[in-house]
Amino acid sequence: MVKLYTVCCAALTNDKQLNDALAKLDAARRARVERLQDKQKRAQCAAAGLLLTYLFGRDEQPPALTHGSRGKPYLIGEGVPYFNLSHSGDWVFCAVADSEVGLDAQERTSCRDKIAERWFTDSERVWLAEDPDGRFATLWAKKEAYCKFTGFGLVLPPSSFTVPCPADGWDEDNRCCWREFVFAAEPAIAVAVCCGMDDSFDEIVDLELNKIL
Q1: Which one is predicted more confidently, 59 or 101?
Q2: Measured between alpha carbons, how far is 132 from 206 in angstroms, rounded to an integer?
Q3: Reduced 3-state DSSP string for the chain
Q4: Does pLDDT of 24 surpass 70?
Q5: Which of 75, 74, 71, 21 is nearest to 48 (CA)?
Q6: Pairing outcome for strands 201-207 and 2-8
Q7: Helix 132-150 with 122-129: angle, nearest 10 deg
Q8: What are the residues facing 195 on neighbouring strands?
Q9: In whole angstroms, what is the distance from residue 50 CA to residue 9 CA?
Q10: What would the pLDDT profile of 84-139 be if each residue is shown by its tens digit?
Q11: Which residues pair with 121 in a beta bridge?
Q12: Mean pLDDT over all residues of the chain?
């Protein structure tokens, strides 16, 4: 079972709201936020920390995390779920699953031809060519989601594998289950999720920021 949680972090670009959020975060997450100079990136990072604590915290304690050899975060403990985070613009996303999971979100923009030429395979470029501006963000989100799913990140060259276009359901070649959609924001955000089991996607849960503060 996979759930996708979303929260809008726009309010955290306000200094007072951000300070309220920082008070709820552990020291490591606070330090990460404070190292960032861009207000939107600070808001995204703080909201991600709040979301993790809301989803996985116990007795109001932040979740205990570890990281794989390539930096992918995991929860510590037996029987804990897998998760993956992504953010784009004013929105932060977290996928929670019973198996390895990768998630990526990209604001829809015009097609970046140099990226497409370097990192997309022949069959992917054929699909992209039918609607370059409409499909570019979706395809790039799928590429990054799969890299995160494997735990290698972009150490795994995006040109070394082909994602299904469109992607929905079990992918035998890449041994993962896909879901892709466009999130209704302004601008719209392409979201891709892949997990390690032929599993159903349960729901998308939109959370209010004040609920997790």
Answers
A1: 101
A2: 29
A3: CEEEEEEECHHHHCHHHHHHHHCCCCHHHHHHHHHCCCHHHHHHHHHHHHHHHHHHCECCECCCEEECCCCCEEECCCCCCEEEEEEECCEEEEEEECCCEEEEEEECCCCCHHHHHHHCCHHHHHHHHCCHHHHHHHHHHHHHHHHHHHCCHHHCCHHHCCCCCCCEEEECCCCEEEEEEEECCCCCEEEEEEECCCCCEEEEEEECHHHHC
A4: yes
A5: 21
A6: parallel
A7: 150
A8: 101, 177
A9: 10
A10: 999 999 999 999 999 999 999 999 999 999 999 999 999 999 999 999 999 999 99
A11: none
A12: 93
Phi, then psi, of 12 in degrees rounded to 5: -80, 0
Q: Give residue for tokens 């070649």.
A: 173
Q: Alpha-carbon distance 33 to 44, whole Å?
A: 9
pTM of the entire structure? 0.94
Other C-beta atoms closer than 10 Å to the C-beta of 152 total 16
112, exposed or middle or buried, with CB in 10 Å at 0-12, 13-18, 19+? middle
End-to-end CA distance of the chain, in Å? 26
In the block, residue with structure tokens 């998308």: 204
